[in-house]
Amino acid sequence: MRIAILISLSIFAWVATVLPTSGGEETPSANSNEKNTLSILKSLPYLQGYKPAPKMTGVIRYEREAAYPGLNFYICGSVPGAFLINMQGETVHKWMINPKDIGLPEESHCRRADIFPDGGLLGIFEGDGKLSGPLIKLDQNSRILWEYRGNCHHDLSVTEDGLIYVLTHQRQDEYPGQNLTGPILEDFITILSPEGKEIKSVSLIKCFIQSPYFYVMNSAGTKGDIFHTNTIEVLDGKLEEKIPIFKKGRVLISIRNLSVIALIDLEEEKVCWLLWGMWNVQHQPTVLENGNLLIFDNSEKTGQSRILEFNPLTQEIVWSYRGNEKNKFYSSIIGSNQRLPNGNTLITESETGRAFEVTRDNRIVWEFVNPNRAGADESLIATLYELIRLPPDYLTFLGLE
């Protein structure tokens, strides 16, 4: 397992701002140093663990009558696979790979995953200190069905017709119309067939430049990981009549390093709507059935995160969750939120390795602490990338009612 390095993710942002600037002619050593620095930038992943491991793990709170019943699917920073547990915390199924089978180092892990009713799993696997890796399709028995090697990172979304939308990035030493002082990572939305064949790849930088929101690029850095896009959600069009901007096929994204969320029209390859200013280095914006958006506001510098439900047209906050003295809530990195059918909200507090379900009046009715460990002596709780709730009858391969 990878040895956790006890550094703050703020160093990651620092590296993005101190890449050597280029002016006039460069000496070979300076150019080599710049390339090495970008290599360092790409080799600072989210850590396996950040916080000391607590004594109590697994499901530590469960109010059966108030919690939404189902199965819990989760991935974490110290395991090259994924887990499915019941409401009591018992393992129902797991997926696990040998990273060496796909040319990755032993300390690799699954950064993001989607699960299919037949037990198939689609996951982004990272390793070797990189912030990107292959997208791999597994069957219910963890056999590898196919791989897509395209520098995938952070998130993916699968539509009803089986198309796969995944975030990818590429190094660029220069970009038309942009004043770069060093190489950058250019983010793309890449569309794949159900069999993992690339269909189309759209540059997010290009989408901003070709839109009325081109001015946002003035706030982007001139070198390094200028966007750090961390979320992608393809809209199904069910709300289009009520909210025209939520047109079917548009893609909702979250750009962490700009604290921006935006809608991308992939046909026109441009940004058609965006919002910023209400949060800081956010994660996991998602469209709710009522037309509101739910978002994880990391609030990196305040020491207190929050979950917001707000009207995307008026920006009115209609519900929020914050921690208190008894129940702290803060994750400066990652984080996830899911609105459940009964109105409760399932929250992943990644940095502390915790997930919990809250009611509309902010009462915790289910709580899980990751039992997986990280660090040289396994003294840290493994980072919990995401935990989501699935209805038992969704997974037909289990034969559960």
Could you list some keywords that capture this structure?
401 residues, Neuraminidase, 7-stranded antiparallel sheet, 5-stranded antiparallel sheet, disordered N terminus
Task: Describe the 3D structure.
This protein has 401 residues and is mostly beta strands. The chain has one domain (10-398): TolB, C-terminal domain (Neuraminidase, 6 Propeller). Helix content is 7%, strand content 40%. The protein is built from 3 helices and 27 strands. A 7-stranded antiparallel β-sheet has the order 6-7-8-9-10-11-12. A 5-stranded antiparallel β-sheet has the order 2-24-23-22-21, with no helix packed on it. The chain has a 4-stranded antiparallel β-sheet with strand order 5-4-3-27, with no helix packed on it. Strand 18 and strand 19 (306-310) form a beta hairpin. The longest helix has 15 residues, at 28-42. Mean pLDDT is 88; it is low at 1-44.
Strand content: 35-45%
Structural class: mainly beta
Largest sheet: 7 strands, antiparallel
Helix content: under 10%
CATH class division: Mainly Beta
The total domain count is 1
Summarize the helices and strands and which ones pair or pack.
Blueprint: H1 10-17, H2 28-42, E1 49-52, E2 58-62, E3 71-76, E4 81-85, E5 91-96, E6 109-115, E7 121-126, E8 133-138, E9 144-158, E10 164-172, E11 184-192, E12 198-203, H3 204-209, E13 229-234, E14 251-255, E15 260-265, E16 270-276, E17 283-287, E18 293-297, E19 306-310, E20 317-322, E21 336-339, E22 345-349, E23 354-358, E24 364-369, E25 373-374, E26 380-382, E27 384-390
Antiparallel strand pairs: 1-26, 2-24, 3-4, 3-27, 4-5, 6-7, 7-8, 8-9, 9-10, 10-11, 11-12, 13-14, 14-15, 15-16, 17-18, 18-19, 19-20, 21-22, 22-23, 23-24, 25-26
